[in-house]
Specification:
The chain has 171 residues and is mainly beta. 0% of the residues lie in helices and 46% in strands. It contains no helices and twelve strands. The strands form three sheets. It has a five-stranded mixed sheet with strand order 4-6-11-8-9, with no helix packed on it. Strands 5-12-7-10 form a four-stranded antiparallel sheet, with no helix packed on it. The protein has a three-stranded antiparallel sheet with strand order 1-2-3, with no helix packed on it. The chain is globular and about 60 Å long.
Length: 171
């Protein structure tokens, strides 16, 4: 059955894998199965970036969800985070460059979980924690069609403006 075109009365579920929706009149929809991860999964509102992207940003308005990651030594990250989602169009390498403005920002890169969402506690592919306002650089091997997450986090509660660049190289 197709989902109703006009939502109206109610949406509920007994679990994330068993959801009901009732529209106006006699329209009802029942979904059973794994729901897709929206907005990056554990990394909410992940911003898409692409090969050749340069993003001017800041973490002051980000959420502070994670203080440690599956990356070796990546703890004490108590500042707000900003998440980027990179769907690789190539098989090759991707270099990520973070230039903090006025504070100590760190860079973590993770793979995705089985549902395509961010996995900050597990699939660490690289980290850079240079300290101060030193640039942070991570280069990873990527596979075409796979999704990766780039996380900018403030060490010790720091907020700062920054520039983030993504460079792709085919072998």
């Amino acid at each position: 059955m197709d989902p109703p075109t006009a939502w109206g009365q109610s949406l509920w579920g007994s679990s994330a894998n068993d959801v009901w929706a009732v529209g106006y009149g006699t329209t009802a929809w029942h979904f059973r199965g794994a729901l897709p991860r929206l907005g990056g999964g554990a990394c909410p509102q992940a911003i898409p970036v692409y090969c050749g992207s340069t993003v001017a940003g800041g973490n002051a308005s980000g959420a502070s969800i994670f203080s440690s990651y599956g990356c070796p030594g990546a703890s004490g990250e108590t500042g707000p985070e900003v998440y980027y989602r990179f769907a690789s169009p190539i098989t090759g390498t991707v270099a990520i460059h973070l230039a903090p403005g006025e504070g100590d920002l760190d860079l973590m890169v993770t793979g995705s979980d089985g549902a395509g969402g961010c996995d900050p506690a597990g699939a660490c592919l690289g980290t850079s924690r240079a300290g101060g306002t030193s640039p942070e650089d991570v280069t990873i091997s990527v596979t075409a069609g796979s999704t990766y997450y780039i996380i900018v986090d403030g060490f010790g509660g720091v907020t700062s403006a920054y520039s983030l660049g993504v460079t792709c190289t085919r072998p």
